[in-house]
Amino acid sequence: MMRFGFDIDDTLINLREHAFHLYNKKLGQDVALEQFNALNKVEIHDLFGMTREEGSKMWVDTLEETYYTDCPAYPDAVETLQDLIKQGHEVYYITARPAEHGERTMKWLVEQGFPMKESRFYCGMKDQEKVNIIRELQLDFYFDDKPAVLNTLTDDTLRVFVKDQSYNQELEIPRITNWAELKELI
Ligand SMILES: [Mg+2]
Asked: Quick check: 143 and 158 in contact, CB under 8 A?
């Protein structure tokens, strides 16, 4: 039995691109997906001509819709995590989503087909604080997309993987592009 930890947004589900499409619709713009795909940073407000402040406000104002509408899971994410459970492994979620969104996020994940145990869901921490929970849980594997998180994880016993994204290309750690690749890692 091994313990697998996963970030949620932009690791298991395509949240940032989902937000990108919502922004286009809300702002009546038609920014091309190619521009989104070429971004070398996490924040997307530049594409819409917004300042950092305007971008933060837009993110907060759109959050409800971004989180709880039809954001797609990445291909094979649900199936891969379900397979891990079937094989007797443990699946943990470690997300920086605000604590007040914890319950609904769990419910939403279950509706999408992700395996869930309430005691294995952690939320409300800052990106830089994930490291403490990851250590406490003594995970064997951890997957995330964000350089700000991954750069804090240097534990020898933990195998860390980056979910491939346009803004994390500089990270020199093992990379996962499609979730179907996970079974070859274990
Ligand atoms: Mg993430």
From this structure: no
The residue type found at 154 is: T
pLDDT tens per residue, range 34-54: 999 999 999 999 999 999 999
pLDDT at 156 > cutoff 80: no
Catalytic residue among 9, 10, 144, 145: 9
Write out the two tokens for 35.
């521009």
CA-nearest of 72, 29, 73 to 47 is: 29
Q: Is 7 a catalytic residue?
A: yes
**In the chain, which ranges are E strands?**
3-6, 90-95, 121-123, 141-144, 159-163, 175-176
Q: What gap in Å lies between CA 97 and CA 162, rounded to an integer?
A: 19
Q: How far, rounded to the nearest angstrom, does the alpha carbon of residue 159 sit from its chain's CA centroid?
A: 17
Domain 3-13+75-184 carries which CATH code? Answer: 3.40.50.1000
Whether the per-residue pLDDT at 60 is higher than 80: the answer is yes
For the chain, what are the domain ranges? 3-13+75-184, 15-68
Catalytic (active site) residue 155: no
Instruction: Report pLDDT for 185.
Output: 84
